[in-house]
TrEMBL record:
Superkingdom classification of source: Bacteria
UniProt xrefs under Gene3D superfamilies: NAD(P)-binding Rossmann-like Domain
Domain NAD-dependent epimerase/dehydratase: start-end pairs: 6-214
Protein name: NAD(P)-dependent oxidoreductase
């Protein structure tokens, strides 16, 4: 059965991975620049989100678009646009809204793998805006799946630490905030895209469910350097910093959407050359 799906953020960096994944499955995809919509839709304009939903009458809404750090949009849009989309989805009778949230809603003060029942303690404006968007969605009445995505790397994610280290040069080393005490969960954009497509088929039992989307593998900066050094030269300096950890427990996503991320780093499309580690 073909499902009619409205995708926001199709032209963004994650959208470039999600669009082909959705197109490979049984969805009738509606998105700016694709069939059924003009090339550009300003969801943040007054009534823009509602108009897009009511015009397309989707069964499913997947909301990728949002304000991200350093991209010139107001973080408040993450809450306001999500709330308007959710209200419109409920009005249109959509059966599901999938929202791309962030591990930033947890903060980075815990040292254990994070489960979805953890208290949300964001420490950044971006994280706070995503947490506010989640709250707006939870109270909207539309069935929803929230994907709390951890550190994404891959084509298009040039600000990812993985991407930056692969692209580093002797005259442009990457500054690292310590080697053993900075621990993160790195997930490939391809794995995230597969999770998005699978989540669009979920039937939320309680109307709202959050899932962590990460690799489930903790990597310190030292471990990240060791792994990357097997494939390319990396250039870095250690500027030091506080001990911080952000790693996903992905058990719920494994159970609910059969999420099976790549445990090793997937560097396809990123590697310019081979070589050995240079710690400049």
């Amino acid at each position: 059965m073909t499902r009619r799906l409205l995708l926001t953020g199709a032209s963004g960096r994650l959208g470039s991975h999600v669009v082909p994944e959705l197109q490979s499955r049984d969805f009738e995809l509606i998105a700016p620049g694709l069939a059924g919509m003009p090339a550009r839709v300003d969801l943040a304009s007054p009534g823009g989100s509602r108009a897009a939903v009511l015009a397309s009458q989707p069964e499913i809404v997947v909301h990728l678009a949002g304000a991200v750090p350093g991209r010139g949009r107001r973080f408040e849009e993450n809450e306001s646009v999500t709330a308007e989309l959710a209200a419109a989805a409920a009005e249109a009778g959509a059966r599901l809204l999938v929202f791309i949230s962030s591990a930033a809603v947890y903060g980075d003060r815990r040292t254990w793998p994070l489960v979805e029942s953890e208290a949300l303690e964001p420490s950044s404006d971006y994280g706070r805006s995503k947490a506010a968007a989640e709250r707006a969605l939870a109270s909207s009445g539309v069935p929803a799946v929230v994907l709390r995505v951890f550190n994404v790397y891959g084509t298009g994610f040039d600000d990812s630490l993985v991407n930056r280290l692969v692209a580093s040069t002797p005259d442009r080393p990457v500054e690292l905030r310590g080697l053993g005490g900075f621990v993160r969960d790195y997930v490939s954009a391809a794995d995230v895209a597969r999770a998005v497509a699978s989540a669009a088929l979920v039937e939320p039992q309680d109307g709202f469910v959050a899932m962590n989307i990460g690799s489930g593998v903790p990597r310190s900066n030292r471990e990240l350097l060791d792994e990357l050094s097997q494939y390319c030269e990396v250039h870095w300096t250690d500027v030091g910093g506080p001990t911080t950890t952000s790693v996903a427990d992905i058990g719920r996503a494994q159970r609910m959407i059969a999420f099976a991320p790549t445990a090793s780093l997937d560097l396809g499309g990123l590697l310019p050359r081979s070589g050995s580690l240079d710690h400049g």
